[in-house]
Amino acid sequence: MRVLLKFPVIFLLFALIMLISGCTSSSSVTPASPASNASTTTATTPTTTNNTSGKITIGVSIPNMNDRFISYVASGMQAYAKTQPDVTVIYADAKNDPSTQLQQIKEFIAQDVKAITFLPMDPTISKTIVDLANQANIPIIAVNRTFKELTTITSYIGSDSLTAGTLQMNEVARLLGGKGNIAIMDGDMGSDAQVNRTKGNKEVIAKYPNMKIIFEETANYDRAKGMALMAKWLASKQHIDAVVANNDEMIIGAMLAAQVNGQDQNIIFAGVDGTMDALNFMKADKLKVTVFQNAAAQGSKGLQTTIEAANGKKVAKEIIIPYELITQANEEKYIAKWK
């Protein structure tokens, strides 16, 4: 028997307030392990966090360590760094500001790091970042996110977002029997994950004449914004058969909003990332679909590749970490990954 998640409205509102308050934290701590499910931050200014006596220095720019999934990528990097006693890793948190990320890269170059890892944010600034690194003859590796000028980068390590969107919507279509009203929650508009996951969603929907998109708006990968957006959609009184989000945080927000309104029983919810929070909702028979993105593998492989490039080794131009569909039929396999 599955245990249903039932929360009083006042508790959910309190949890939402606490969540928003948590997002304003700026303390400097090391990345958490995935199993802890804790959001973490590093300093905005590049700060050395491990192996300070190392012979090789690597700079790492993280977009936002308060983002749960990104904190898992950073944890994968930190875990690999512990196996490299001759390497110093400098982590910097851009706090969702592309101009801050650009400044961090400039500081890394000024410090004469041997290689740079970054999770791209703004496409234009990402191109500038790569150009600056190339001009300084410093290998630069992109992790998790892509952008158009990827051909000028040393290496990219991540997953194919188009595949994620396709896997996700194929399963939703199967569950709906090929018909129904779909609401799509986009992430940050223009980001690789938003563009390609949504593209994958729409390519699947186009195959089914009786499936149509009735809503599509952004909630910026954020749980609280996903909750607010879902509340707005529900208030419209339009019938929704499935809500499909570009990540798990937004779909969790959508589920909480639907639960507050008592409208969560007949809606299929689908996310991407396969986080432990999402899997808890799946185990409770709320979330029906998510797609596992191996954050730790992206982080560890990204840092490994960066260190190899710093040592003058030839590295692959692109390393793809596969996505994996998660449903209630195989949820326990993925829950075990977080233990």
From TrEMBL:
Domain (Periplasmic binding protein) ranges: 58-314
Subcellular compartments: Cell envelope
Domain of life: Bacteria
Pfam family, one: Peripla_BP_4
Region (Disordered): 30-50
Keyword Signal: yes
Record keywords, A-Z: Signal
Keyword field contains Signal: yes
InterPro entries, alphabetized: Peripla_BP_I, SBP_2_dom
Transmembrane segments: none
Family: Belongs to the bacterial solute-binding protein 2 family.
Protein's recorded name: Sugar ABC transporter substrate-binding protein
Organism this protein belongs to: Paenibacillus nicotianae
Taxonomic lineage of the native organism: Bacteria, Bacillati, Bacillota, Bacilli, Bacillales
